[in-house]
What we know:
The complex is a heterodimer of chains A (76) and B (131). In chain A, 32% of the residues lie in helices and 34% in strands. Chain A is of the alpha+beta class and 76 residues long. At the A-B interface, helix 1 and helix 2 of A face helix 1 and helix 4 of B.
Amino acid sequence: MATRKIVDGRGSFCPGPLMEMIVVLKTINIGDELEVLSTxxxxxxxIPEWCKKIGHAYISTxxxxxxxxxxxxxxx
Amino acid sequence: MMSSNKxxxxxxxxxxEHLHMAAMVASVAAVCGSEVLAFxxxxxxxxxxxxxxxxxxxxxxxxxxxxxKKVPEFKTLFEQAVxxxxxxxxxxxxxxxxxxxxxxxxxxxxQEATGLTKFLDDxxxxxxxxx
Lengths: 76, 131
């Protein structure tokens, strides 16, 4: 069953949240999801770009109270 | 689609802004699938001597703000470039001689010291960024 883990990158600046996400992405199974929390708008743009380039599935981004929630699924 | 391009990053400045920008380029390129070679010389190299925690001086407003905020450390980013993206970091043999440091004195994520001849040859078919 697919699971979703939180990567808390709040307070860090680009490329901090991306790097933290990649570290955790290596530890999860294909099909599992990560929800990256970021207070940095640059990262909200950078993470979907990275997914597109590398070939992981980018699901969605929502912003709530100054925190970006970026959801990605490990595809390989 | 993963690109397989190669970049060479020449890191020579010892100031915070230059070291940080070099670290961002190296780490992001490496995790995006580029082959990354980085060459450390001049005032940049001494920041990577183990136990010698001299703060990189800021040049201006940006560096000052970065010190106050939670920006990833440039050394952490270089280490992540190696660990997450397979970047190869080379200390300059000449700079090591001038500084009187050995391979063991440098952070463990560095490759064996190299000279410009080999570095330029290895990176000849890639883009070059100088900081």
